[in-house]
Amino acid sequence: MSPSPGDAAARSGTDAERLVRFLEEAAPAREAPAPHVERLALLQIRLEGDAFALPLLQVLEVVRPGPLTRVPAAPEHVRGLMNLRGRILPVLELRTRLGLSAAVHSPLSRVVVVERQQRRFGLWVDEALGVLQAPRSTLAAPPPEVRSPLSDYVSATLPLPSGMALVLDIERLLLLRDAPPPSAG
User: Torsion-angle region of residue 97: left (phi > 0), alpha (psi -120 to 50) or beta?
Assistant: First the structure.
């Protein structure tokens, strides 16, 4: 005797309930996902032993330094010009730009290529450490007690497990001061 359509409906309801129970036991419901936390991607760099960071959205690439051509009478922080795959790239040394001692070329030295206002620049750093993902809520303004004209290049502080990183404002770093006029001699 074949089952009636009513029997099939009753059995499928039972099957559906059994399937739901099976799924609940096999894969219990997870807790509700945490609310979305806005994160900021940063390139962590090292300058004179200290940790700094640059917003990753403004970084095009990180390259090994190539031969540089010095520019006469250029500001101290202009390291020179570098030919990067046929494109002339001004290279700024972040250490002297921030008032630190001049960098010495090492195997870890890198040039971070950034683009601002349709102009590409290289930023000479002691070392590029990698990408950090930080919740925006962990960034804080530098304390007013440490403010100086050089700290205007710092947009935020970021706590790290090993200390703290200063987040640099690339826009402000790239503002070149006028070179002093050559002395008449």
Answer: alpha
